Structures are given as C-alpha cells and as structure tokens.
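Chapter review. Work through the record for YitT family protein before attempting the end-of-chapter questions.
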Amino acid sequence: MQQAPPKHSTAENVAGIVIGAFVASLGLFLLKSAGVVTGGTAGLVLLVGHLVDWPFAVVFTLLNAPFVALAWRRRGPRFVVASAVAVALLSASSLAHASYLRVDMINPLYAALLGNLAAGIGILFVFRHHASLGGFTIVALVCQDRFGWRAGYVLLALDAVVVAVSALFMPLEAVALSAAGAVVVNLVVSANHRPGRYPVAL
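Structure tokens for YitT family protein:
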C-alpha cells in the first residue's frame, strides 16, 4: 500500500510563500526597470504601468480582484487566503524594491532573461506551497485540476495574449524581449510543476 505523501508544516508553507513572493517581485522589478513586459497578470500590470503612472502594487491588487471569486469556488477559502497573502507580500516587496533598490543601467535582454527566471522560480515556490500569485496563475491551476493541462502551458497561452496586446503600445524590440521572457518563465513552471510530480501535500 502506498504511503500518503508527507505534509508541509505550517512554517514551511509560510516560508515558501514568503520566499516565492519576494523572488517573483524582484524579477518583476528588474523587468519594470528595463521597460520590458512579461506575460500573465504581472505583465498586464507592467503594460498598464506604461499607460498610467500608478504604483505597481496598486494596479496588481486591483487586477487580481476578479480572480478571487474563481479561486474561492474552485479551490476553496484556504487557497484564497494563502494566495491573498502571497499577492500582498509581492505588492509590499515591490514597494520595498522601488524604495531601496536603484537600477541605473540594465541591459534589456539580460533583464528579460533574469527577471523572468526569477519570476518563474517565485511562482514555482508559491505553487508548491498550495497558493498562487493571483490572476492568471489561478486560472492555470484551475485548468490543471479540472482538465489535467499543465499549468505552465496554460500560462504560456495566456501570456501570448498579453505579449500580443503589448505590441500595440510598445516598440517591436521590447515586444520580442517580452515574448522571449514569457517563454523562460513558463519553461521554468512547466518543467517543474505538473499533476502528480510533486508528492508533498498541504
């Protein structure tokens, strides 16, 4: 008889969500500093940031609101609370980066690769501790649960839409970098997070 998978402790879940949110926010800060958009809800926030001069944390929180009902219905209140905490931590971290970190010069290609790599690692941390960073990541997890689709592939499809829309407002070079970065972040997630691969339960 197969043994039940070991559970994360509460401390492990908290640590994983905190680390994931912080690392993801650092990646997004690098992208914003270089003027590069990524995919997903975060990419949509960065795109809006090119159009209106609002803080990242404010736009990110507002755009996440419509996804809360979906998460509550499909994954339950515990997941929603954990995800809300992760989103709040990401927003707070983004404000801290803006206050304490100055990036005077960063190559856009380097920022697209490193920023999206960090974002992917952060998302993976949060996923593995049974939370999300809101927005499209909730849609991806719901599709994975209901249809068996890999979350990384769902995110890649949604990211393609965001990058395509960004072509209406940004130079083609920045759009190309954004597309390459979206592939990076989703390769990280799809290669490391799939149904049944990670056996540790909540």
